[in-house]
From TrEMBL:
Transmembrane segments: none annotated. It comes from the Bacteria. This is PhzF family phenazine biosynthesis protein. Belongs to the PhzF family. GO terms for molecular function: isomerase activity. The lineage of its organism: Bacteria, Pseudomonadati, Pseudomonadota, Gammaproteobacteria, Chromatiales. InterPro entries: Phenazine_PhzF-like (IPR003719). It comes from Candidatus Macondimonas diazotrophica. One of its GO terms (cellular component) is cytoplasm.
Length: 305
C-alpha cells in the first residue's frame, strides 16, 4: 500500500527557504505506531498526518518530531498542512478563502487558505489566545548569561522588557536592542541551570529584536527560539511562539488589530516570514492569526505494510 506525502516549505514563497514540513494529507487508517515509525524514518523536524474527522472540512492533525515524539502544537505545520490539503487535490482550489478546522491535543484550530487563479497564495491559522503575564523573571545578568551575552545592557527594546507569558503555549520572551545582538546569542545550558529559570520559566525562550518596517509601515521583528530541547546548531521554527509574542507586543502597542511581521533565519540560513494579526480587549489579546506563503517542494509515496 502506498501513502502519498508532500514536502513543503512553510512561511516562504521561495523554494528551500522557510521551514521544511512533511505532510501526509490522507492518512486515514494509520495508527500512532505507524506514524511514529514514518516520522523517524524521514527525520523531518515536523511530520504531519491528517485524518478525516466526523464533520465536513475538519481533520484530526497528528504531529510528530524528528524522533517520532508526538507534539501538541506547532505553527509551521498548521499552515503547511492547510496549504497541502489544496496542493494535493484533497480539497478543490477555489478562488477566495477556504475555511476548515484541525483538531489537535490543545483543541480546535481554524485554518484559512486563500487561492488565486487556482493557486494557493496564503495559508493562516487562527486561534483564541489565553495567556497570562507572570511578572517574575530572572535578573538581566542571568538572562545575559543564558544567551551568552557579555552583559545585560543588550537586553530591552523600546517600551518592552523581558516577560514570562504563561498558558497552553507558555514562552519566556526577551527583547534585545538590535538584530546583531540577536544573531550573536547562543543558549548556555549551564547558565540556565544556575539561574532561577529552572524553577520559574517555561522550557523555551523567544529572543526578539526590532528589524525596521515593512514597505506598508508594518512593524518588523526578527526572532529566534532557544531552549533546553533545542540543540545549539538549530534555528528552529518560531510559529508556536507567535500567540505569546502577540500577547507580549499588545502590552505596549496600542493598535487594534495589532499587526506585525516576524522573521526567522535571516542571520542563520533559511528565512521564514510570518504575518501576525492580533485582536484584543484592552491590553489582552483575545485572538491571534498567523499566516504566510507555503511553497511545494516534492511529493511521493511511502510504502505501508
Amino acid at each position: 500500500m502506498g501513502l502519498e506525502f508532500h514536502c513543503v516549505d512553510a512561511f516562504t514563497d521561495t523554494p528551500y527557504q522557510g521551514a521544511p514540513i512533511l505532510v501526509f494529507p490522507q492518512a486515514d487508517g494509520l495508527v500512532e505506531a505507524q506514524m511514529r515509525r514514518i516520522a523517524r524514518e524521514f527525520g523531518y523536524s515536523d511530520t504531519v498526518f491528517l485524518q478525516t474527522a466526523d464533520r465536513v472540512n475538519q481533520w484530526h492533525m497528528h504531529l510528530f518530531g524528528s524522533r517520532g515524539t508526538p507534539q501538541p502544537f506547532a505553527g509551521h505545520p498548521l499552515v503547511a498542512a492547510g496549504a497541502t490539503l489544496i496542493h494535493s487535490g484533497t480539497l478543490p482550489a477555489v478562488d477566495g478563502e477556504t475555511a476548515f478546522k484541525f483538531r489537535l491535543p490543545i483543541g480546535e484550530v481554524d485554518l484559512q487558505v486563500r487561492c488565486e487563479s487556482g493557486k494557493v497564495m496564503h495559508s493562516a491559522f487562527r486561534m483564541d489566545c489565553d495567556l497570562a503575564v507572570d511578572a517574575y523573571v530572572p535578573s538581566t545578568a542571568d538572562i545575559a548569561a543564558i544567551l551568552s551575552l557579555p552583559d545585560g545592557d543588550f537586553i530591552g527594546m523600546s517600551g518592552h522588557v523581558p516577560l514570562n507569558l504563561m498558558g497552553p503555549m507558555s514562552c519566556f520572551i526577551v527583547p534585545l536592542n538590535d538584530t546583531a545582538t540577536l544573531r550573536q546569542a547562543s543558549f548556555d545550558r549551564a547558565a540556565w541551570a544556575r539561574s532561577s529559570a529552572t524553577a520559574t520559566l517555561p522550557p523555551q525562550l523567544l529572543a526578539i529584536a526590532p528589524a525596521g518596517m515593512q514597505a506598508d509601515g508594518t512593524l518588523r521583528l526578527e526572532a529566534r527560539l532557544f531552549g533546553l530541547d533545542i540543540s545549539a546548531q538549530e534555528d528552529p521554527p518560531i510559529g508556536s511562539a507567535m500567540p505569546a509574542l502577540a500577547s507580549f507586543m499588545a502590552l505596549s502597542e496600542p493598535a487594534d488589530p495589532l499587526r506585525f511581521v516576524a522573521i526567522r533565519g535571516s542571520g542563520h540560513g533559511r528565512l521564514s516570514t510570518l504575518e501576525v494579526e492580533a485582536r484584543r480587549s484592552g491590553q489582552t489579546v483575545m485572538e491571534v492569526r498567523v499566516g504566510g506563503a507555503v511553497t511545494p517542494i516534492a511529493q511521493g509515496q511511502v510504502m505501508i505494510d
